[in-house]
Design goal:
Serine Threonine Protein Phosphatase 5, Tetratricopeptide repeat, globular, single chain, mainly alpha, disordered N terminus
């Protein structure tokens, strides 16, 4: 999910206080605290070539807090902030095992295990996280009941795994159930944090399924929740809600509203911070802003946004880098630089193949169809649109907006190429689905109706 892991992984409680008040045995001495932590330091992997790490994000000095685990809390947060999941998991595992071995309450131990599972999800160890979450749910259900907060937290992370594995319907189903349960029985701050996490996951999963209008509604519901809070919410999550809302509005061709939402996203201190540091998390806001500015004809600003996104993506490479390059090529097409765009798209197809980026490959096929359509080379455009349609059908299903977008382009190519019967079939296929997605009076719906009317006037249908 685009939601920052920190929103779903609450900061550690004051573990030195926890140790003093709730734990017994050998760890009650500062000497044992220090020895345990020194043992952990020996196992920390400082190979930063494996992870993204911002400069100075991790102190060079080892953790040796004589007061207990307070230093581990700081170090754990720094590892997570630096996306060093390997070491973050080691620190959290140490804490969990230490609590288990020294008579901590089962509730507090399970709380830490849920954070460990969340960190495993961030590290994309879905199998390990699923096993751990299943054990947590079973134990928490037996101890506290099936509607306990710990069970709901574990269910949230299972929904997050579904999202990460592109099982969006499962993510929607589970997050909806959690939200319903929280609405019935809970109103405390801890539950509100989980509610916001679920609301964000719910909204983004709906967007991924192509239900832009409902996703927009859920984003607005999230904003209504935080408006009623008397404390500051997680700003990284708020930025991502604005990102999802901007995407929903843009997909519905509500570009002015989308631009306003994008500007709010860019004005957040969280976004400004990542922009200053060229952090990978700034990639998403920059790309959606770039596409929106390109849609509005502000091409120079769009290119600047995509180039900044490319710089941010280079720290991680892979799909994010290709997304920024595709944005640059797409904008170049609108500026009339077709040859340069084709060169970039052809290189992208090779790179998509190399890293197994099927989704990116489908979008690039789509963009290449657009180029040949612009050049009135409809036969070539149809070839690429058919490939994009086949891939989108496999990736998203036949009723997803991405798939229907390929159908639309095929229909318009058939119409321009004089293949009237084929165009008619595709438009008739589109009309009910566009009404469902964009509404009876949506811009895209009206375009389909208009083209059908044109075909009717120029043919015997």
């Amino acid at each position: 999910m685009k939601t920052a892991w920190t929103s779903g992984l609450p900061a550690l409680s004051d573990l030195s206080l926890l140790v003093t008040e709730q734990m017994h045995g050998s760890i009650t001495t500062q000497q044992q605290h220090g020895q345990d932590i020194m043992d952990l330091e020996d196992n920390i992997d400082d190979d930063q070539d494996m992870v993204y790490s911002r400069e100075s994000s991790i102190d060079s000095a080892p953790v040796s807090d004589p007061d207990g685990f307070r230093g581990l809390e700081v170090q754990y947060d720094k590892y997570c902030d630096a996306r060093d999941w390997k070491n973050a998991i080691k620190v959290k595992t140490f804490i969990v095992n230490h609590l288990k071995n020294n008579n901590a309450t089962q509730y507090e131990t399970l709380k830490e295990e849920i954070q460990l599972a969340g960190c495993m999800v961030a590290a994309r160890d879905f199998q390990g996280a699923t096993v751990l979450l299943g054990r947590i749910k079973e134990l928490a259900t037996n101890l506290f009941g099936s509607d306990s907060f710990l069970v709901l937290e574990a269910c949230f992370w299972e929904a997050e795994i579904s999202y990460q594995e592109s099982r969006y319907e499962d993510a929607v189903r589970v997050s909806r159930l959690i939200l319903g349960q929280l609405q019935i029985v809970r109103s405390d701050r801890q539950s509100t944090v989980l509610k916001l996490d679920c609301q964000s996951l719910f909204a983004d999963s709906l967007h991924r399924m192509g239900d832009y209008r409902q996703s927009e509604t859920e984003c607005m519901r999230y904003l209504q929740i935080i408006d009623g809070l008397d404390y500051t919410c997680n700003e990284s999550q708020l930025a991502e809600i604005y990102l999802t809302l901007t995407e929903n509005l843009r997909c519905q061709r509500k570009n002015i509203q989308a631009l306003d939402c994008s500007e709010k996203m860019m004005a957040l201190e969280w976004t400004k911070r990542w922009l200053r540091e060229n952090h990978p998390d700034a990639h998403g806001p920059l790309c959606i802003s770039g596409y929106l500015l390109s849609d509005l004809g502000r091409f120079d600003e769009a290119l600047e946004a995509f180039k900044k996104a490319l710089v941010c993506a280079e720290k991680e490479g892979g799909i994010k880098e290709l997304q920024a390059l595709r944005g640059i090529a797409s904008t170049r097409v609108k500026q009339g630089d077709v040859d340069e765009s084709l060169r970039i798209f052809r290189e992208l197809l090779i790179k998509h193949e190399e890293i197994g980026d099927e989704e990116g490959k489908a979008f690039t096929m789509f963009e290449m169809g657009d180029i040949y359509k612009t050049k009135d080379e409809y036969t070539e455009a149809i070839v690429y649109y058919k490939k994009a349609l086949q891939m989108c059908s496999t990736l998203y299903g036949q009723y997803h907006p991405h798939t229907l977008g390929a159908v639309w382009e095929l229909a318009t190519c058939y119409q321009e190429d004089g293949q009237i019967e084929k165009a008619w079939v595709e438009y008739e296929r589109l009309l009910p689905e566009f009404k469902r997605i964009y509404g009876e009076d949506g811009i895209n719906t009206r375009k389909v109706v208009s083209n059908i009317e044109r075909l009717t006037l120029s043919s015997n249908f």
